[in-house]
Design brief:
single chain; alpha/beta; ten-stranded mixed beta sheet
Length: 893
């Protein structure tokens, strides 16, 4: 049985063979196409090569590619240096090059194709710009004598309005390469340049005249010359607008703004130029509280910036009012004149070159224009005379003085359609409140906008404005115009949607609103949960999971207040307890097992001894805080016996371990407000006293009160000690055993007080930590150490890094960074000579979800000031490898 696929197979094979033959036949035709080697040099907008893609662009590239269609040649582009293109041509490396020729009668090393292909500028450039014209020294200006003559150049400068040219000394050169070399070595102050593009790396003073750009071939190559000439003529005959199209594409704007002395003097005399602009055409041109706004106003500001003048813009409500202002001489210029010379003559105005194009669109009630519509037209408008009155019957046209009146006529049915600029259509519909009107967005008419100059004013103003219009970038103006139009369309489209489809709009808006509400609810709940987590971390010892000292200080006053109300009978007290020789346990047992044992032991004590009301663990695990209640007729000794029994309950991994405890007790006075920080300090003092005496406990009594009095005395004298430099800096060296040399030092503080004698830091630093005076002491020590290091560095002595303690209180200080910066700037040191020593427990901040974030950022900024860091007492606080990774430490102790 023969299948359908089998029958189709011969046809497929035949199709493949036929296609292959056609493909092979095409190769000889392509290969047979003659080649034309075109030499070029890179010139902005005339001929450019994009290095990444290898794509060509520019006026000459487009022109030559179009010409190749008529010449029947395949063009191969070869890049050559500007000064050596002629050598490429005469040596046969290329067949054609572009050349700029001011004088065709001169002797040239090549043949010119008779028809020019473009224009180039001949201009005067001076090293220091226009200021060179007023120099007392002669300004040597080079020119190529085969192209120009000194007389022609001076005549051109005078014609351009330059009077002060006596100091210009023209120097003739045989070639442009020699002239360029003289300019580079400083022999010349300026040059006469023929350039395809006017933007060169030389300050332009004057554009003298234009020169023609030709295609050049080798001498004697008449056949190629005639072929190219005939091809150019055929191309121009077939596409006469080619040069205009390419000029618009590549040279629409961006000409240098070169003003003559006469023009500059005119602007200097006229610092303020009065202008008039139409109103009520937002966002094209409108006024807000007397100030001109909109696209035209933005363009006027560009004119002001470039010309160095101020435009005082008068407001006109309609065409009639604008014409009246101009006819009475109240304004010098009109910013938005329709670019039509007849229109300008009717208003007795001179017209500049156009700088902007505007489109007109229809506005109807339902988006459609009926047959023989009634038209609402703006009276006296150029668009009305040039389009409406030529397209529609006169009896169908109604005239109105403002755009809003035209829209109202369409809205109430007096007219079927009106027309307005596409820039303003949607905005005017929105402002008028006629939501039922529609703009199709299809342009029916376009015209250009120019600046109109009052015919009674000096024509020089027209020339100045024309130069400015040639200078500004029209592409940016088009982009700005398109952005304004798109924004008005986008905004109006949303408003129209709501107006025409209210229920759908509510549904569309409700869905994201519900989503936003749900998201906000989630964020609020998440924030509360996070705050609870942070609060738990803030009040919890992270290693044991029990309450910490912060919680104890805030919680206990509330419990005592409850006790004072009579809820419990007895005398409250605060106990600070420590396990003796804990360092031995830490060496013999794993940290996690020891922490778990300590936690379980505290819980058992709380469960077994009812006199314990609350308990907590210090952040550094160096103490256990207990609030106890001593009931009537109960002795402290009996409570201590409870602890002797409790010591036997301590077990690690289920195995009993003998421990000994020591504690300090501070009794609380009933009915008085107590500072819990002071109470804890008192209990700690009692505990330390017990430890030093070898006792199991000590009760804080009047005997220890003297210590408090000493603290009070210290607090009274501490500020005077800073002012009188009573605190001394002692340096404890850091000695490297291996290298046997001093590699650093640690700054220690001693207080030599006239009133209290010589004191070690243990006598006053703990108190300063409590009352925050340690902050000022730290700054004092930093200043002293920086001054010492600065003096040693200045005297050429050996300087090693010295570490200075920094209290954790600094990280909650508002102006910490600014004070540290002031110190670094007032006493400068080389980086690395001062090390800040901080404890890891300083890096917890309740105001941040990330406990290390704020501290890390602060340390990073301090590092930028030249400080280095060391972590003291690592492993006693929130120890972890993440601490080392997150905090920028240089040294760990």
């Amino acid at each position: 049985m023969i299948t359908t696929d089998a029958l189709r197979m011969p046809k497929r094979i035949g199709s493949w063979i036929l296609g292959l033959l056609l493909l092979l036949c095409s190769f000889p035709a392509t290969a047979a196409l003659p080649q034309l080697n075109f030499g070029y040099y890179v010139s902005p907008d005339y001929f450019e090569l994009e290095s990444f893609t290898g794509r060509y662009s520019g006026y000459l590239f487009d022109y030559v590619e179009s010409l190749s269609n008529y010449a029947g040649r395949r063009v191969i582009y070869k890049q050559c240096d500007f000064n050596h293109c002629t050598d490429f041509l005469t040596s046969g490396q290329v067949d054609v090059i572009p050349v700029v020729v001011s004088n065709k009668n001169q002797e040239l090393p090549y043949e010119l194709v008779p028809t020019p292909i473009s224009k180039a500028a001949v201009f005067l450039g001076l090293r220091h710009g226009r200021a060179s014209l007023y120099s007392s020294k002669p300004q040597r200006v080079g020119y190529v004598k085969s192209s120009q003559s000194e007389q022609k150049l001076r005549e051109a400068l005078v014609e351009k309005g330059f009077r002060n040219i006596r100091n210009l000394e023209f120097v003739a050169f045989d070639s442009s390469s020699k002239m360029f070399e003289s300019y580079k070595n400083g022999t010349l102050e300026g040059m006469i340049i023929e350039a395809l593009r006017r933007s060169v790396n030389l300050p332009i003073v004057a554009e003298l005249f234009d020169a023609d750009v030709y295609l050049a071939v080798r001498k004697g190559d008449e056949n190629l010359k005639i072929m190219l000439q005939n091809s150019i003529l055929r191309m121009h005959e077939s596409d006469p607008m080619l040069e205009n199209i390419l000029n618009s594409k590549y040279f629409l704007s961006g000409e240098p703004l070169i003003l003559t002395d006469e023009e500059l003097n005119y602007l200097n005399r006229r610092q303020v130029i009065k202008a008039v602009a139409t109103s009520g055409q937002a966002p094209y041109s409108f006024f807000d509280k007397g100030h001109h706004r909109g696209l035209i106003a933005d363009i006027a500001k560009i004119f002001e910036r470039d010309l160095g003048v101020k435009f005082e813009v008068l407001e006109s409500q309609n065409e009639s009012e604008m014409n009246e202002i101009l006819s009475h001489g109240q304004a010098d210029i009109l910013f938005d004149l329709y670019a039509d010379y007849n229109w300008a003559r009717l208003r007795d105005m001179r017209m500049t070159s156009p700088y902007l194009s505007v489109d007109y669109v229809p506005v109807t009630r339902d988006g459609r224009i009926p047959e023989n519509p009634k038209v609402a037209a703006l009276y006296g408008s150029f668009f009305t005379s040039e389009y409406v009155e030529k397209i529609y019957q006169r009896d169908k046209i109604s005239y109105y003085s403002t755009l809003n009146d035209c829209l109202s006529a369409v809205a109430d049915g007096s007219a079927d359609v009106t027309f307005m600029k596409s820039l303003v259509a949607q905005t005017q519909i929105e402002l008028s409140g006629h939501r039922g009107l529609r703009s199709s967005g299809t342009a029916v008419f376009s015209h250009q906008i120019a600046v109109g100059v009052n015919a009674n004013r000096d024509p020089i103003l027209v020339r100045i404005l024309n130069k400015e219009i040639a200078h500004i970038d029209k592409r940016n103006l088009r982009m700005l115009s398109n952005e304004i139009e798109f924004e008005s369309l986008r905004r109006s489209s949303l408003i129209d949607l709501i107006y025409n489809y209210p229920l759908r709009s509510i549904g569309i808006i409700a869905v994201p609103m519900l989503f936003i509400i749900a998201l906000l609810t989630y964020l609020v709940l998440e924030r509360r949960r996070s705050f609870r987590t942070i609060r738990r971390m803030y009040y919890t010892n992270v290693k044991t999971g029990l309450h910490n000292g912060r919680w104890f200080e805030e919680r206990i006053p509330k419990v005592i207040e409850k006790l004072n109300s009579g809820a419990f009978v007895g005398d409250p007290f605060v106990m600070v307890l420590a396990i003796k020789h804990k360092d031995i346990l830490e060496k013999n047992y794993e940290s996690r097992h020891l922490l778990e044992a300590e936690r379980n032991w505290i819980i058992k004590c709380r469960e077994n001894f009812p006199w314990i009301l609350e308990c907590a663990v210090a952040v550094d695990l160096e103490g256990i805080y207990i609030l106890g209640l001593l009931k009537p007729k109960t002795l402290i000794e009996s409570l201590m016996q409870d602890f002797e029994r409790a010591e036997k309950l301590f077990a690690i991994g289920g195995v009993a371990v003998n421990i000994r405890t020591v504690c300090g007790i501070c009794m609380l006075k009933s009915g008085t407000r107590t500072n819990m920080s002071n109470v804890i300090v008192s209990a700690q003092m009692a505990r330390d006293d017990a430890m030093s005496r070898g006792q199991s406990y000590v009760v804080y009594t009047d005997a220890l009160e003297q210590v408090k009095l000493k603290h009070k005395r210290i607090e009274d004298l501490m500020e005077k000690g800073i002012e009188n430099n009573e605190f001394e800096v002692w340096i404890q060296p850091k000695y490297a055993i291996r290298s046997r040399r001093v590699i650093g030092g640690e700054a220690l503080v001693r207080w030599r007080s006239p009133e209290m004698g010589f004191m070690q830091p243990g006598e006053f630093v703990p108190l300063f930590e409590k009352n925050a005076f340690v902050i000022e002491l730290d700054y004092y020590m930093l200043a002293k150490v920086r001054t010492m290091q600065q003096a040693r560095s200045r005297d050429g002595k050996l300087c090693v890094p010295i570490s200075v303690n920094q209290s954790g209180l600094h990280f909650s200080e508002d102006n910490y960074l600014s004070r540290m910066k002031d110190l670094a700037e007032s006493i400068p040191l080389p980086d690395g000579l001062l090390e800040l020593e901080v404890t890891e427990s300083a890096f917890f901040d309740i105001t941040s979800r990330d406990p290390h974030r704020n501290a890390s950022n602060t340390m990073q900024k301090l590092r930028e000031m030249g400080y280095t860091f060391s972590m003291d007492d690592f492993s006693k606080g929130y120890s972890s490898m993440s601490s080392l990774l997150m905090l920028p430490m240089d040294t760990v102790k």
